[in-house]
Amino acid sequence: MEQSTSVVSTISPTNLPNPTSTPVATIRSTPTSMPAATPTPIPQTQIPLPEVSLHVPAQWREKVEAILKDPQQSKTRRWQIVSDANADVRLVNESGQLIISQEPLVLAVPFTTEWENISSEEAENIISQGHNLITVMPWSAMPQGHRALRIDGSFPADDDYPWHDIWSLHAAPGYEEAAGELLPWLQAAGSKPLVHLLAVGDIMLDRSLGYALQQGNLAYPFAAVSEKLREADVTIGNVESALGDMGEPAPKRYPFQAPLEAAESLALAGFDVVSLANNHAMDYGSAGLLQAISLLQEHDILAIGAGANAQEAHEPAIVEINDLKIAFLAYVNVPVEATTGFDTASWTATSETAGLAWADPVQIADDVNAIRDKADLITVVLHSGFEYVSAPSEPQVAAARSAIDAGADLVVGHHAHILQGIEFYAGGAIVYGTGNFAFEIDGPPQTALFNIWLDEDGVRQIDIQPAIIQFGGQPRLAESWEAPAIRNRVYHLTNLLNAR
C-alpha cells in the first residue's frame, strides 16, 4: 500500500487512553481494542426533522450508506450524503469532540527487516516526509508479511503509543444534536475488535522444574516470564509430558511425567489453552493422559488435541474475547523414534480408545471446515517436524498448509526443540517452530514468546519477544544484547520459507 499524504496530513500525536470493554468471564484478559458503541434507535417523533446534509470520505461511504438504510435507524431524521465539504455534518480524519474511532497509525516495514524501534522525532519526520522502506498506515490496514515498528519502545497496542489515526464528526452550529444521534452508529461501524494471543513452545515440567513444584514452589517454572504471559488475552503452549501420578511408563527413550502441581503452576503463570497432541502426553498411558486433562480442567485450562476418544481429541476449544470467537485445534505427526522404534502414531485416538489427534492433512481440513461457522478465527496447533532441524519437514508443511487452505487463520508449531521460520501463506500465518520454552534439556537455550494480534480478518501482526532457557529449564526474557541474534535467526529462516 502506498503512503497517503491526505491521511498523514490530518494525523496528530495523542495521549488519549484507549477505551476498554469487558471480557468474557472465563478468560482473564485486558481487552486490546476500542469497543463498538451500541447504537440506540433514535426516538420516533410525530413531526419529521429537517434534512441534514452529510459529507463522508470515499472509504466511509459504503458503511455510512448501509447505516442510513438500516431499518432500526429513525426515519424522522433524513440524511443526505453530499460532496460539499461545507455540509451540515462532516466525517473528518482528525480529532474532535465526537470521536468515531481511533487506532494506531503505524510505521510498517517488511516482517524480516532488522529494525525494531524508532524515536518519536524520527517517526514524526517519516510521517511528514516519507521513507523508502516504511509505509505509514492505520494498523488495521497493514498487509500480510509486515509489522509495525515500536516508537520510543511503545508498541501499537500499548496505552502510551503516541500516534493514532482519528476519525470524528464535526457539526455546523445547530446540528450538534443530529451529529450526536449518528455518532454511535458510526462508532459501531468503525470498530474492529482485536485479540492478543501469546504462543510459546514445549513445556516440560518434569526433572528440575518438577522437583521445584514438588517442594511447593508453584511459581518457579515461569517466575521470570509470568507477567508477560498474563498480559495477553489468551496464552497457549504445548505440555510435553504426562501430568499427575497415574499410569506406567511407556517403552520409549524419555518418558516424562510432571507432578500433580504442574496444572496449578500453569494456571498461575497465565496459560489458558494447552495442547496435549505430542509425543509425550501419553508417556504414562491413557490413565496418565486422562488424569492430565482432568487436572487441567480443574484449573480452568482448556486441553486440546487429546481425549477419551477420537471425537474428544478432535473437539475444538472455543473462547470468546472482545466479541471474537477463536477456535483451537491441535494435532501431532512426528517420526518413529530411531533408538527404540516407538511410533507416536500408535497413540492415535479411536472411537473406543483414548489418545491423540494425528495430523492427517485431510482430517485437519475436515475438522477446520466443520467449525468455520462456529468461530470468527481458527488457530491450529501442530506438533511436527524433525528434532533440531530448522527446515520444516514435508509432513509438517502439508499439515500446516492444509489447515490454512481449509480456512484456519494461524498455525502454531513445535517439536524441533529449536526456533523455526514463519511462512505467510494463502492469507494465513504459519509459525512452524516456537522451540522449547520451559524445559530442562540439552539443546540451544534461545527461544521466544510469540505475540500475535488478530482481528476479524485474521493475523494482523506477529511480534517476536526473545527469551533464554536457563540452566534447569526456567525461561527468562532475553537481555538487550541477546535479543537481536534470536530475532534475526527467525527472520533469516522466514526469508528462506517465503522465497520458495
For the residues shown, what is the average pLDDT? 91
Domain count: the total is: 2
- What share of residues is helical? 10-25%
Biggest sheet descriptor: 8 strands, mixed
CATH topology of the largest domain: Purple Acid Phosphatase, chain A, domain 2
- Which CATH-level-2 architecture of the largest domain? 4-Layer Sandwich
Identify the CATH homologous superfamily of the largest domain. Answer: Metallo-dependent phosphatases
Based on helices, strands and strand pairing, what is the structural class? alpha/beta
Low-confidence stretches: 1-36
CATH level-1 class of the largest domain: Alpha Beta
Quickly count the helices. 12
Key terms:
single chain, 500 residues, alpha/beta, Purple Acid Phosphatase, chain A, domain 2, 2 domains, eight-stranded mixed beta sheet, elongated, disordered N terminus
Walk me through the structure.
This protein is α/β, with parallel strands linked by helices. It has 2 domains: 5-190, no CATH class; 195-499, Purple Acid Phosphatase, chain A, domain 2. The chain is 24% helix and 29% strand. It has helices at 5-8, 58-69, 120-129, 176-190, 207-214, 226-231, 262-269, 285-298, 310-313, 361-371, 394-406, 483-499; strands spanning 12-13, 49-55, 77-81, 89-92, 98-110, 117-118, 135-138, 146-148, 150-151, 163-171, 195-203, 234-239, 242-243, 257-258, 273-275, 302-304, 306-307, 317-321, 324-333, 355-356, 377-384, 410-414, 422-425, 428-431, 436-438, 446-455, 458-469, 475-477. The strands form 6 sheets. Strands 1, 2, 3, 4, 5, 7, 8 and 10 form an 8-stranded mixed beta sheet that branches. Strands 11, 12, 15, 16, 25, 26, 27 and 28 form an 8-stranded mixed beta sheet that branches. Helix 8 links the parallel strand 15 (273-275) and strand 16. Helix 10 (361-371) runs parallel beside helix 11. The longest helix is centred in the last third of the chain and has 17 residues, at 483-499.
